[in-house]
Amino acid sequence: MTTGDIKVDYLARVEGEGALDIRVKDGEIVDLKLRIFEPPRFFQGFLVGRKYDEVPGIVSRICGICPVSHQITAIQALEDAFGVRPSLQTKRLRKLLALSQWIQSHTLHIYMLALPDFLGYESILAMAQDHMDAVKRALKLKRLGNDLTVLLGGREVHPVTAVINGFTSLPPVEELRAIQRRLEDALDDAVETVRLCASLEVPDFSWDAEHVALRSEEGYAVNEGRLVSTKGLDIPAWEYRSHIKEKQVPHSNALHSYIVGRGSFLVGPLARVNLNADRLSPRAKEAMKASGVRFPSFNPFHSALARAIELVHAIEESIRIIDDLDELVPEDSGYSIKPGQGFAITEAPRGALYHSYKVNDQGLIEAADIVSPTAHNVNNMEEDLRRFVPRVLDLPHDEATLKCEMVVRNYDPCISCSVHFLKLNIVRE
Amino acid sequence: MSTKLKVSVYKLSSCAGCQLEFLNLEPVLLDLVGAIEFSYFPMARRRYEPGPYDIGFVEGAVTCGEEIERLKKARQECRILVALGSCACYGGLPSIKNWTPERVIVSRVYENSSLIHSIKAYGIDEYVQVDAYLKGCPVNKDELVEFIKGTLLGIRPRLRPHSVCVECKLNEYECISVIKREPCMGPVTTAGCGALCPSRGKACDGCRGPANDANAESLARTFSEYGLHRSDIVRRFRKFAGLTQEFSRGADAV
What we know:
The structure holds 2 protein chains of 2 kinds.
Chain A: E1 4-8, E2 19-25, E3 28-35, H1 43-46, H2 55-60, H3 67-82, H4 88-119, H5 124-127, H6 132-153, E4 162-163, E5 166-167, H7 173-199, E6 210-215, E7 226-229, E8 234-235, H8 240-243, E9 244-247, E10 256-259, E11 265-266, H9 269-276, H10 282-290, H11 303-324, E12 340-348, E13 351-359, E14 365-371, H12 373-388, H13 397-409, H14 415-418, E15 424-428
Parallel strand pairs in A: 2-15, 6-11
Antiparallel strand pairs in A: 1-2, 1-15, 2-3, 4-5, 6-7, 7-8, 9-10, 12-13, 13-14
Helix pairs in contact in A: 4-6, 4-11, 6-7, 7-11, 9-11, 10-11
Chain B: E1 5-11, H1 17-23, H2 26-35, E2 36-40, E3 53-59, H3 65-77, E4 78-84, H4 86-90, H5 102-109, E5 132-134, H6 141-153, H7 164-170, H8 176-180, H9 196-199, H10 216-225, H11 230-237, H12 245-252
Parallel strand pairs in B: 1-2, 1-3, 3-4, 4-5
Helix pairs in contact in B: 10-12, 11-12
C-alpha cells in the first residue's frame, strides 16, 4: 500500500471534531491536512460588548473538560487590566482548583482516551473485563479530582465560585482535611499509573520540536510564570503577541499557531516536564526516575507518561497546599475597574493557555484574544504526522489509521477549545 | 429484559461538557453500562454500532448547514431524541452572537471570512422534533440519571418545571435578590440544579432557561428598580436562552 488514500473521517476518543487527510504517491506524502471541522462558536466575537464580570463564566463554556483553566486565565487577565493583586489565600485556592482539574483531566486522558490504544481495546468500557483494577483506579482518581473541583467550585463542569479578586464562597476547612486524606490515599494509585504508562511500548520517534511552557520561581508553574521554550523563548504574558502569531489555513477552522521566525511548537505535559522537571514534587521526581525514561524526552509518545508524572505531582502538591490553608477567612474582594488591556497565561491540563482583554471605561469588553493549548498544538501535530506517516504507510489500512490517530491523541486534543479539530483520510494516488 | 437500551451521543457546536457528564458519573458508570449500551459515543469509544438507537442525546447548538443534516439523520435513527444541555435546548451561549450581524462576528476572529460557513445559532428543535429537554449549562447529572432510569422503566422522568427560587427556598439559602439586591435570574429560571449558584453566594445566571410561567417582564422591571441599566438587563436575558419567548419578553420589557 504505497499509493493511495488514508482517511480518518471522524477521530474518536478526542474531545471535538476533526479529520486527517493524507495523499500518498509512490510511497511519498504529497499532501497532509489535519482538517478541523468543529464549527466555530466565535467566543472572541460575541465577548465584545459583554461586561467584564461575565467573562469568566462565559469563557468557561469554551471547554467542558478544562473550564477551570479558562476561568482562571480570564480572571487573571482582567486583574492584570485593573491592577488587582489577589491575596495569597486566593492564589492558593486558585492553584488547588487548577490542580483538581489536572487530576480529573489527566486521568480522563490517560485511562479513557489514550490507554485503550496501547492495550489494544476500542474503549475503556471494553477494557473493563480484562483490566478491572486499572478501570477502578481510573474511576477513583477521576472522581477524586472531580470532588476537589466540586468542593472548591460547586460543580465539576463549569464551576461557579471563582471571581475577580477572590471566591464567592470558601470551602469548609474540615472538608478540605477530609479530601486531603483521600489525596494521600491516592498517591500510590498515581505512582502505579506512572508505572503502567512506563510499561507501554512506544515507537522510537523523536524530532527536534520546540517545547514551550510556563516557568516560575514559585515551583512547578500552573497559574504564573514566564513563557519559556527549549529554543530560548523567555517572555512575560504581555509580550506574547510579539512572539507568537496565528495564520488561517483553508482546510481548518482552527488557526495555526507559530513562533515568529521559527515555526510550530508543542505545549502540554511533555513540554512542562521537559522544562520544569527540577520543580516537580519529591514523589513525582522519584516516579519519573523509576520510569526508566530519560527526560527531557522529545518523543511525543511519552506524553501519557509525562501526564502520569504530573498526576503524582498534582496530588502531592494539592496535599501541600491544603496544609498551608490552616484557616480560611472571608476577605474583602472589592476592586475598581479601569479601562485598559490585560494579559494572562496559565498551564491548562493540555498546555499553555493565553487570554487577553481590552476593557473600556464602562467595563465593557472591546476586544478578546484567546489561544487554547490545542490551538497552539495543531500546527505541531501536522509536523509530527508528516514525520511519522512514512513509517506506517506499509501497514494495513486499519493499523495505519490507528497509529495516526495515536499521534494526534498524544496531544489530548481538545478540539472544541481550538476552534476557531479528527477523521483520517489517506488518498493513495 | 435481556437487551440493553442502545444509546447514542451526538455532538454539534458545543464544549463537550454535557457529554462529559456521562463520564463524570464515576460511582454509577459501571452499573450504567450494565443497563445501557453506548452504541455511538465518539468521545469515549472508537468503535460504534449503526442505528437505530433507543435514545439519542444531542449536545450543542446548530451553527452550520452540515449540522442540520447530521441532526436530521440523528432524528431518523433515534426513537427518543433528547436535547442535552442548554445549547441544544435553546442555542445556549453561542446564541449571544445572533444579535450581531454574522459577518461582523466572523471578521472579529478570522481574516478570510470566505472560508467560514457559519449560520445563526439555534437549539435543535428549530430543525427537528425533540422528545425531551435536559436543561442546564452543563446538564445536571442527577437529572441525566433520572431520565435514563425513567426510560428504562418506561415512566415519565421527574424533571422540574418550577423555578430555581422554589429549590432555593426549600434549601433555605439566603436570598441573593432580596438581601443583597443582586440581579438574580432565579425567579424565572428552571430548577433542577439545586439552586447551585445562590448556594455559593452568587446570583443565578439563568443557564437552565425559562421556567414554566416565568414572569420575565416583572423581573426585568425589578432589575430596573435595582438600578440596572437597560443594556445590563438585556444582556442578562440574552445569554443562555435569549431566543426563547419568555426571555425575549424580559429583554424587551424595559
